[in-house]
């Protein structure tokens, strides 16, 4: 047992860190630091820089562009990206549909889609959730009826992140409405967003953001070749997809970077005529979150090491539910700390400035995103299986209750 | 001890609630929010009609002689309806300064205008460096003949963009953080040297940053003692905080009700999600935190007029801590129990959470007020 | 609405307060202040002082010795007693079996028992809980078989507080094992602890205390005249009894007195070479608990006022569950604060000193009970319906879930 | 980075656990607890046999060259069995002082005796005024010829009642709270002028108050630099805290397991109470807090030997905060989920809760260590 990084791991970390520092455009980094929204161009630009370096899809098999790194290297890579802070590649292509395609897809699908995912030539979005389904995913109702060499899709998806930019959507659709169990009769379809009959309607979140959407399908004709794997086996692919989310789910690097930034900012505002960072109470609150984060980092490393030990089986360690629960709590705690820092400057609401806007912000320039982020990040304990669902999973899978 | 409303108070409560139930549906509110001036002049006129704008003022100036309980009733109802109009800055906050420090002439001049809905006021107090310290004032007022010249920059002035007149705290002597040497000055919003930049706040209200450059006011503009205005400011702000606490209770009560209702109607896995014990218990925790907040809002209301300034401060600060903590726990749970839809603009819960959160950030957040309570005497000694 | 005490209420409070201060023996007060155990004699002595004053059973009907006070006066009386701090009368006689007897008992029972309860000539204990029943009280199994003019009782009760001193026990027993619903077929019996066949076995609690007991019944013959009310109606009487617990359940006065004491003690220990009470962090923790307690006090007063408004119907306000939950949390929080104050002097374990022992304590003389109280008071969120049960009640009765 | 145990470590873990599983059942423990000296001399001999008493010492003195990980393994196993023997004071704490500051002669003399089970040590450090400050020392050691005379009163000396020799911190110079001028002295427990009052601690361990009156020791009694002993004390105590963290993890793991098991077997309303979602979620919260504690105990173990004293302090303090918080949450929930039976001596959970709680009160509680962490640099900076 040696809980220090090895020399190789340190060398790898330094390599990754220095690349990220050099390669990330400063304008993007600045937005990341204070939690401003990224443009579509920002996201694409960074993904292509990674792809150029050969690091777009490190966790994929080498034959499809992966790096062959082990779990610890992948962990370090993600951690460093989060700490830079650089934008994390959108999961919908590289972490979700990509692995489904290279695992279950046809050769034609692999050739057609995988390189374009790595280079974000196609922007993918996810069509799983439906209104009324929520945590009960298997109750989905969007239908795909076979009609010759097409499927005809009707229904509605919701919570579709960044669908407004998407070229493609991967969907769970019901191909056999008469299946005995609800989980049967579901298929996994790839759908071109340009296909007639698709309507995207934004859902505005209460923080003022426009990240998520409803996607409506009205007699949308999808070529049968866009079916992944076998018909009515989609539930298995979905479980595979959802099980892949593991390393990095705790977003330890994100929280580290945020705490560091909060420390800086608390040095810039004064309370009782001295920097807030000198307030013992504030320091204690900060220390308490840092202790939780350090513990989570160690917990995460234990999970990563266990992965490495038994080989990356693709099965999630049930302990990864801890990472989700605690990781979300800590991320949310950082938004609360930032609210404490900005104090009265939480109030002004400013639309995300257009590029090139020159109206000065109200209050310090980093204060604007504090409240919207506090509001928006409430989602972290809801999406991807709410914390209540995570607790159900742990109770059953780990505690045997 | 008597927790019952008097007949008049009951009548007031019923009429405010009826007005809001009739007129302040969510769609109307959204409409006003998106338009100019960001709230409803029509509703403002109705508040005037109902006497709400005259409520806390003395009858000799056309007021209704309402006290802290009456303000609590109105503010809680406003909190339930998420009212956007500038009642708090005009009637409660600036109104409080006027009531406590205004001259007879000032009251006789201004209160009737406020009462009939023709005059909006705002209290230009906060500055970029002052955070929550009422005594931290860099804006200056220097004597110029028989009048004064005001210079400085005020920030996040609540509803400062639509106010007709501003009450400005300014330093007439002493250092930036001295308790002495602060005065209050009535300044026309359109006066020469006043420039305003209005903006929305997170909760759909309005605020403004206001620059005062060489703004000349006459001797009649002084509100109270120009060398010792802080006690009046503190008194008015404590009353205002008690009112905000009541408003937050209105917010949180709706969050709780909406959430419990959602738990009853929303089905998952074939049953109402309210049948899941973990969610039931979370709803109960919300209820406990709501009722504790309500109790403290009442306590603040009771103590807001206490002649012992230290006891008043202590009580109001304690209430603000409780309200801030309940806003966090009730609001966060409200969103969480709604799940995804709780994150959307369409559902009410997020809007109420935003308002309650901004109330925490107004006139001192939990940390600020916990310092006050911890620094003072025991809150529960006999 | 006027949330201040009226002049009459203040006068009443002052009268009660000054009586308590004068009448309570100093030796008992000193034990109360630092949470040492009271002897049987202490408890009896105080009850008789109250009875002499006519204040032993203020909530009873005047004809049986009550004072005729309204809810607000009763609240003030309890609050002042807790703050003195004087021992609260043991509930088993005056609050539990007493009201059952004067409401449902025979005239003979009333005459025989009530005056002796008020003067604690009989020490009562409660025989409701059974092993294996817990929160599911109705599953009780202790049986009472009618045999001529006696019942023959067999079975076991548990968690019987201070049964080691008891003269009488009131029991729920199953008189009809074939009743359709479990709640039917239960009767309410008064049993002389001297009766042959009764064995009391102490349960030691993990803090080292000996408050609770198991009570075994082996063919115990109980005269039929000791049945309260009707046979097989005992469940109704039990519900009545449990519903009576309302005012004072939050023990606001107890927590106030403890916080005051903690404030004093924190002035006597030093940290960083200055009194702990000057530590901003400690003051904040104290302030946070005080804020919760002030809120609870107001909540309690709201419940009391609502009682007063609609008349004391004997039905508990469901909101009283809040009082139980929050009251227990705050009482427990005071034990945690005291642990912070005693610091390393939490460690020494000292048996409660015998009267007249002159061995000096380890550490300050008030430090000894800190840890045992911290441990022992975990029971407060368990007994009388655990906080989980209280939440179930609120969810159902108030929220309609 | 490698979280796996080496083969030797695995063997150590297995053999300790097997010994305790075979011998340290709850009834035996209760027997020892109630007798004299309050723990088992037989078990002590077995620990010696197994090499546990030699574990952290250098092989040149008959030790086994074990490091912080080995100590963690033993202490966690001891925490799981709620071991009563004075391993912590003798081997970990006083052993650490010896290892870091003892002279060759002292080591050669004492370590073999410790290793074979013939010598018990205790560290007489705390005083009634010192609370958790290691540098707060009023006990004095003044030079007397070539020896020293020790005077003072030490309190809550862990297992000080059965120790054969005491290592005493005493002031050789400076003021009561100076960091300089503290020395360590080996004192025979039976020396003239030493009087002890032993007592049980809440968790069934033993401690003593010890009075030193004009106790004369020779020059060979000095451990390390008599004018600058504090760094050694801090180092040994940090290592000892890491060991206590591991022990507490053992405690909490058992509380969690016992509670989950109880939820499975205990029935109410006709079903296992573990089927109630609110209790399931509470058990999950316990699990999360346990695993976070385990992670921090590992972190402390890793950092306990760090040459950078500030980083070591920061890490160990952070771990102690997490352990203390987890002890509170896991322990309290463990009792609560057991209900009434959790309050009894018969059930294990209370005993484990007591030990974990006392670990929090030993060498600095949550508040103390949170101050340390808050006063230092970021714990999570790169």
From TrEMBL, chains A, C:
Q: What's a GO cellular component annotated to this UniProt protein?
A: plasma membrane
List, for all copies, the residue spans of the domain called Acyl-CoA oxidase/dehydrogenase middle: 125-220
Domain Acyl-CoA dehydrogenase/oxidase C-terminal stretches: 232-399
Any one GO MF term held by the record is:
pimeloyl-CoA dehydrogenase activity
Region: Disordered; residue ranges are 348-367
Q: Which UniProt keywords apply?
A: FAD, Flavoprotein, Oxidoreductase
Q: InterPro entries from the xrefs? A: Acyl-CoA_Oxase/DH_mid-dom (IPR006091), Acyl-CoA_Oxase/DH_mid-dom_sf (IPR046373), AcylCo_DH-like_C (IPR036250), AcylCo_DH/oxidase_C (IPR009075), AcylCoA_DH/ox_N (IPR013786), AcylCoA_DH/ox_N_sf (IPR037069), AcylCoA_DH/oxidase_NM_dom_sf (IPR009100), Mycobact_Acyl-CoA_DH (IPR052161)
One Pfam annotation reads Acyl-CoA_dh_1
Query: Which residues belong to any copy of the Acyl-CoA dehydrogenase/oxidase N-terminal domain?
Result: 6-119
| Documented EC number(s) | 1.3.1.62
Q: Does the keyword Flavoprotein feature in the UniProt annotation?
A: yes
Q: Name the enzyme's class.
A: oxidoreductase
Q: Which cofactor does it need?
A: FAD
Q: Which family does it belong to?
A: Belongs to the acyl-CoA dehydrogenase family.
This chain's protein is named: Pimeloyl-CoA dehydrogenase large subunit
Classification from the root reads: Bacteria, Pseudomonadati, Pseudomonadota, Alphaproteobacteria, Hyphomicrobiales
From TrEMBL, chains B, D:
Q: Which UniProt keywords apply?
A: FAD, Flavoprotein, Oxidoreductase
Location of the Acyl-CoA dehydrogenase/oxidase C-terminal domain? 228-374
Q: Which residues form the Acyl-CoA oxidase/dehydrogenase middle domain?
A: 122-214
Output the InterPro entries linked to this UniProt entry: Acyl-CoA_Oxase/DH_mid-dom, Acyl-CoA_Oxase/DH_mid-dom_sf, AcylCo_DH-like_C, AcylCo_DH/oxidase_C, AcylCoA_DH/ox_N, AcylCoA_DH/ox_N_sf, AcylCoA_DH/oxidase_NM_dom_sf
Which superkingdom, per the lineage? Bacteria
Gene3D superfamilies assigned: Acyl-CoA dehydrogenase/oxidase, N-terminal domain, Butyryl-CoA Dehydrogenase, subunit A, domain 2, Butyryl-CoA Dehydrogenase, subunit A, domain 3
Task: Enumerate the spans annotated as Acyl-CoA dehydrogenase/oxidase N-terminal domain.
Answer: 6-117
Which CDD domains does the protein's record reference?
Answer: ACAD (cd00567)
Mind telling me what this protein is named?
Acyl-CoA dehydrogenase family protein
């Amino acid at each position: 047992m040696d809980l220090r990084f090895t020399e190789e791991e340190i060398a790898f970390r330094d390599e990754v860190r220095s690349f990220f520092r050099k390669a990330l455009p400063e304008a993007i980094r600045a937005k990341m630091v204070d939690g401003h929204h990224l443009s579509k161009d920002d996201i694409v630009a960074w993904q292509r820089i990674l792809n150029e370096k050969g690091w777009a899809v490190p966790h994929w098999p080498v034959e499809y562009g992966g790096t062959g790194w082990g779990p610890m290297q992948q962990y370090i890579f993600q951690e460093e990206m989060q700490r830079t802070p650089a934008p994390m590649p959108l999961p919908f292509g590289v972490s979700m549909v990509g692995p489904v395609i290279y695992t279950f897809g046809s050769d034609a699908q692999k050739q057609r889609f995988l390189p374009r995912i790595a280079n974000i030539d196609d922007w993918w979005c996810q069509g799983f959730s439906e209104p009324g389904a929520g945590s009960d995913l298997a109750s989905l109702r969007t239908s795909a009826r076979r009609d010759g060499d097409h499927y005809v899709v009707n229904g509605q998806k919701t919570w579709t992140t960044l669908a407004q930019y998407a070229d493609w959507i991967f969907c769970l659709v019901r191909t056999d409405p008469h299946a005995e169990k609800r989980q049967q009769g579901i298929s996994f379809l790839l759908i071109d967003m340009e296909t007639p009959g698709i309507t995207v309607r934004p859902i505005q979140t209460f923080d003022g953001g426009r990240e998520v959407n409803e996607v409506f399908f009205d007699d949308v004709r999808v070529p049968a070749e866009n079916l992944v794997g076998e018909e009515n086996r989609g539930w298995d692919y979905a479980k595979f997809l959802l099980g892949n989310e593991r390393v990095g789910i705790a977003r330890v690097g994100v929280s580290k970077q945020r705490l560091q930034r909060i420390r800086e900012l608390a040095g810039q505002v004064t309370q009782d005529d001295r920097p807030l960072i000198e307030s013992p109470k504030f320091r204690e609150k900060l220390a308490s979150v840092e202790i939780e984060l350090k513990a989570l980092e160690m917990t995460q490393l234990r999970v990563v090491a266990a992965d490495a030990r038994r080989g990356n089986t693709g099965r999630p360690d049930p302990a990864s539910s801890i990472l989700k629960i605690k990781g979300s709590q800590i991320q949310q705690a950082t938004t609360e700390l930032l609210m404490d820092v900005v104090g009265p400057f939480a109030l002004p609401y400013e639309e995300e400035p257009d590029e090139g806007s020159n109206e000065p912000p109200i209050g310090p320039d980093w204060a604007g995103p504090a409240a919207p982020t506090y509001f928006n990040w409430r989602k972290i304990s809801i999406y991807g299986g709410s914390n209540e669902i995570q607790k159900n999973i742990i109770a059953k899978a780990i505690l045997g209750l | 001890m008597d927790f019952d409303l008097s007949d008049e108070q009951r009548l007031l409560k019923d009429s405010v609630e009826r007005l809001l139930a009739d007129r302040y549906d969510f769609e109307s509110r959204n409409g006003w929010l998106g338009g100019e001036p960001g709230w409803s002049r029509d509703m403002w006129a109705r508040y005037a009609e109902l006497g709400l704008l005259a409520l806390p003022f003395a009858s000799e100036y056309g007021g209704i002689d309402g006290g802290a309980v009456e303000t609590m009733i109105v503010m809680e109802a406003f909190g339930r309806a998420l009212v956007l109009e500038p009642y708090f800055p005009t009637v409660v906050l600036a109104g409080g300064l006027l009531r406590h420090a205004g001259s007879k002439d000032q009251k006789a001049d201004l209160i009737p205008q406020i009462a009939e809905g023709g005059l909006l006021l705002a209290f230009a107090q906060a500055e970029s460096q002052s955070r929550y310290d009422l005594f931290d004032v860099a804006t200056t007022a220097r004597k110029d003949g028989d009048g004064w010249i005001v210079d400085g920059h005020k920030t996040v002035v609540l509803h400062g963009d639509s106010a007709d007149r501003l009450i400005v705290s300014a330093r007439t002597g002493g250092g930036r953080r001295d308790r002495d040497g602060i005065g209050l000055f009535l300044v026309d919003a359109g006066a020469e040297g006043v420039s305003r930049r209005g903006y929305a706040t997170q909760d759909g209200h309005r605020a403004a940053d206001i620059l005062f450059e060489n703004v000349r006011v006459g001797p009649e503009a002084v509100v109270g003692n120009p060398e010792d205005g802080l006690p009046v400011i503190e008194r008015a702000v404590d009353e205002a905080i008690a009112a905000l606490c009541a408003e937050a209770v209105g917010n949180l009560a709706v969050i709780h009700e909406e959430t419990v209702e959602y738990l009853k109607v929303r089905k998952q896995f074939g049953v109402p999600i309210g049948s899941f014990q973990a969610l039931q218990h979370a709803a109960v925790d919300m209820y406990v935190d709501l009722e504790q907040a309500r109790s403290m809002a009442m306590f603040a209301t009771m103590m807001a007029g206490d002649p012992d300034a230290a006891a008043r401060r202590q009580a109001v600060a304690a209430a603000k801590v409780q309200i801030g903590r309940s806003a966090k726990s009730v609001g966060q749970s409200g969103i969480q129990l709604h799940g995804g839809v709780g994150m959307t603009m369409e559902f009410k819960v997020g809007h109420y959470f935003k308002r309650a959160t901004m109330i925490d950030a107004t006139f001192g957040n939990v940390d600020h007020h916990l310092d006050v309570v911890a620094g003072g005497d025991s809150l529960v000694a006999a």
